[in-house]
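URGENT: need a sanity check before tomorrow's submission.

F., can you look over the NERD domain-containing protein record below? I want to be sure the sequence and structure line up before it goes out.
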Amino acid sequence: MVIKRRGKNNKVEKLEALISRLSSDHPQWEWIKEEFHNRQSGERGERSIDYHLTFLPRDEFFILHDLRLENEQGYYFQIDTLLLSSRFFIIIDVKNYGGCILLDHHFNQLIQQSSNGNKRGLLDPISQIRRQELQFKKWMKSHGMKNIPVESLIIFSNPSTIIETTTSPSYYDKITRSINIDNKIDQLKLKYPKEILTKEELWPLGKSLVKAHTPSNYDPLKYFKITQTDLLKGVCCPSCSVLPMIRLHGSWQCSACMYLCKDAHIRALQDYRLLINDTITVREMCHFLGLSSRYSAYRLIRALGLLHSGGTKGREYFLEFE
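Structure tokens as predicted:
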């Protein structure tokens, strides 16, 4: 049973908005694009295992996705997927790497070679998941939870990935492919035959974990050291992606392809919410959308039905809309 569903990947959304608002000659452009593609690939990998988890007995496992918990030092650790059962818990970390990967035990690294022959070094997934195990065990202990075994699995979700290792296969027992999740869990059932928690104890424990989850407040501008002045202003054309569009007789017109659209400003306001703030003033809206008339901004606000706070002067509107 899924008791915490996988939400929208806020980081991917924000990075996509940032890419659309930066000039391609910006010094951070390539780094941001690489980060976006890596996170987008990771998100696809995480979602790809959801199908395989549907084959688990519904009354035997509670499933929590995208769990972010605070440790005793005030730092946060993220768990892609957590399976709770009465006999053991399983932390699942999903990797969606393509090409050929080499798991180097001696230097604790993962080397990925793409189809064009380029290589790049990445963090060792086994070291990563062992740290997650340790942090989660400490978290359970600090919250007075029973000492229940915690296991972990690293799932390679891309079926075309070639996996090579530098040492004996037993070192990589934690690693498997999506289609083999069932077999790995069956092995753990044999390893831990004794029930430690009752079903009545497991449910409130799962709900406690959901309650302890803290959503990420990822700020890409801060992370990449980008100022608001670096962001391109205006409304982006939904047809050819050129900006800015021109406000003309209640519509937006692209100066490049002449495309007309009445609600192109909604995407621009979503970008503002993702990158700058979830509230906006009329003056800020005029500046960001490239409007010369405050009256035009007021008309857009009324049409969107935005709620507001504050008096007439400096009133802030909440950017909450479909």
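My own read: The chain has ten helices and 16 strands. The domain at 233-318 is CATH 1.10.10 (Arc Repressor Mutant, subunit A). If you see anything odd, call me.
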